[in-house]
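Continuing from yesterday's entry. The apo prediction looked reasonable, so today I'm repeating it with NAP included to see how the binding region is handled. Same sequence as before; SMILES copied from the compound registry.
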Amino acid sequence: MKLKQASDRVALRNGTMIPSLGFGTYQLPDDPSTVDTICAAVKAGYRLIDGAAFYHNEKYVGEGICRALDENELTRDDLFITSKVWKTDRGYDKTMRAFDQTMADLKLDVLDLYLIHWPAVPRLTDEWEAINVDTWKALIALYKSGRIRAIGVSNFKPAQLKALMDTEVIPMVDQIQFHPGLDQDETLKFCMGHDIVIEGWRPLGKGQIIGNPTIVERANRYGVQPAQLILRWALQHRVIPLPKASNPKHLVDNTKIFDFEISPEDMHLIDSMPKEADYTHDPEYQTE
Ligand SMILES: NC(=O)c1ccc[n+]([C@@H]2O[C@H](COP(=O)([O-])OP(=O)(O)OC[C@H]3O[C@@H](n4cnc5c(N)ncnc54)[C@H](OP(=O)(O)O)[C@@H]3O)[C@@H](O)[C@H]2O)c1
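Holo prediction written out below.
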């Protein structure tokens, strides 16, 4: 299906439909301005809201969701809400408690997508595999109870994904850092081969790739803004980009990525851009 707008959805393995563009909430403040930002995002057309307990703003994100539904005459099913269990809450029981807290903060009965935020890795613990599997089993239990519509992981590379492949339900989503200048080829291939949908976090390199001369030059040729070119590049890789913007103009501009197509040559050019700055995080080199 040709995607025409942010609300157009693609199917996850279990049939749950996920919107093709998401709105990031990391570093939105823990104050009422976040309610306004969420309302502006929904008004602009975003239907996927990407949150996490670690962002320490879920109460205001939840309030924003509630107000946005009212203001836009939408039903709960029109929105797709994501949260994530943080590193310090890994393990079966702690994940269950963390999930309850997130749902209380968001004031929701059902979550659309719940992710393990970061994997435990061998560099930090010999128990990494058991910890990830225990955490994953909690997500499976919540999924089977009907409190979550889809479950997945974030920042998992093939080595950590493989350890979940023998469980009862395999991840439906992997949310990874994805932007020009970052090679995630191995994870992309693994996920596509196992029908795991990829979401791209920090798709604009935290704003730092927007001024890249190659990006600016190509964006001018297409008559679009650099951020729009970058987000379109992710979309054409079949990655769901999750840009964050608090500036109302950015927030609206970033939804306008469905009416142009990047040529295969330009896709290749952007694919081969070198890594520019040190704002990438390799999950296998986590320090805590
Ligand atoms: N799973 C994970 O481990 C993980 C980690 C990090 C992030 N994430 C998710 O990914 C989301 C996005 O990542 P991010 O917030 O780190 O970075 P990002 O979306 O790559 O970049 C956000 C920055 O770009 C600026 N920006 C946005 N649109 C722009 C435009 N059209 N023109 C110029 N500047 C623009 C924003 O400025 P303004 O705010 O001023 O508009 C902000 O400074 C997060 O919010 C979060 O939901 C997930």
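Comparison notes:
- The mean pLDDT is 96.
- The two ends are 41 Å apart (CA to CA).
Will overlay with the apo model tomorrow.
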